[in-house]
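Posting here for the record, re: 2'-O-acetyl adenosine-5-diphosphoribose.
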Amino acid sequence: MTLEQAGVALRGARRVVVLTGAGVSAESGIPTFRDALTGLWSRFRAEDLATPEAFARDPALVWSWYRWRREHVLAATPNAAHRALVVIAGRVPEFTLITQNVDGLHERAGSPSVIELHGSIVRARCTGDGHPVTAWTEREPGPPPCPECGAPLRPDVVWFGESLPAASLSAAVVAAGHCDLFLSVGTSNLVEPAASLPWAAAARGATVLVINTSPEGQRSGPRVHNLIGAAATILPALVAAAFSDEA
Ligand code: OAD
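Prediction output follows.
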């Protein structure tokens, strides 16, 4: 499918669902989960830093890794891919944005009601009663206490071995099952259950556009089309192809 044809599909779509992964934030300079295990952190494995067991064993270590990543994310800015999705949301009758990213850049670009499947590193969560916490005072060693009850905070992310937030997952599944156009952007589509969402949409008759830089990210199947290139290039071009002739 050419970009022009994809633009026609987007212009005619009534219900659009977008699933994003690390590639959508590549042009913002956000390292992927694996790439974040570099430099200072290269001697650790994901299991040392991103599991409930790791946090129980060494909360200060886990907190400091997330604090380092949070500072990196807060210093970054949304890119043209994030912004193009805000434009699409304003142009189609129904729009759902689902992300596996924890960087909060969709929200900062202005996307409303993002379904965050893996949480957000910009937020913390009280280990006492589980409520989200958006402002706290850091201390050494971390983690800092909940401002309300004093229980230790934890990053508000889904760790390996934890379930995805049930409400977010079911909203994502419902949206994927009812859309007529599904965009999979910058994700390897390997980590379940998010990986199944595009194929569930295709099985229900939706057109699926896969936007990825790498040949390994491409997918094939009925109603599945690949647009090869960087999200920050392809998405603005798709918006232009779909809507540029509108007043
Ligand atoms: P991955 O790192 O698995 O895949 C990123 C995908 O983006 C790859 O297929 C790249 O080819 C592609 N890519 C890279 N740069 C791009 C660009 N500029 N434009 C478009 N595509 C680009 O990341 P995710 O699929 O997001 O889970 O990984 C999903 C989950 O696996 C993550 O949320 C994380 C990880 O383990 C948890 O933390 C629970």
